[in-house]
Design a protein that fits this description.
- This protein has about 130 residues and is mainly α.
- A hairpin with a 5-residue loop joins strand 2 and strand 3.
- The chain has 7 helices and 3 strands, in the order H-H-H-E-H-H-E-E-H-H.
- Strands 1-3-2 form a 3-stranded antiparallel β-sheet.
- Helices cover about 50% and strands about 10% of the residues.
- The longest helix is centred in the C-terminal third of the chain and has 14 residues.
Amino acid sequence: MPEADAAQGTDDGLCTEPESALQRVFALLGKRWTGVVIAALMSGPGHFAELKRAVPGISERMLSDRLSELAQAGLVTRHVQEGPPLRVSYRLTEAGLGLRPALVELTRWAEAQLPEDARKCPREFRP
């Protein structure tokens, strides 16, 4: 196998370098608060104020930015409920809900490897 090919993978097809798909995932989900916002929506739709309470420490601006990014990525939908008062709710799309197994496994790993943080785990991700 030429040296350039060896860096890309092995004979069995297993990639040994982070590929662009993994880089795209972490470019989105690796941003501060993103995973926690997704976790907050795993139990069902939420209004902005509910999400703000569910993610302690996040600013309104940051929550708005993260929700917009997640909507643009196709992981969250925004639903406007006519008023008065006008209310907006957010829910995960099928693609967003598809992250549940990955988040559950990350939670298990964190509980085993980062035990001091285990008590902060959202209820729906506990084994």
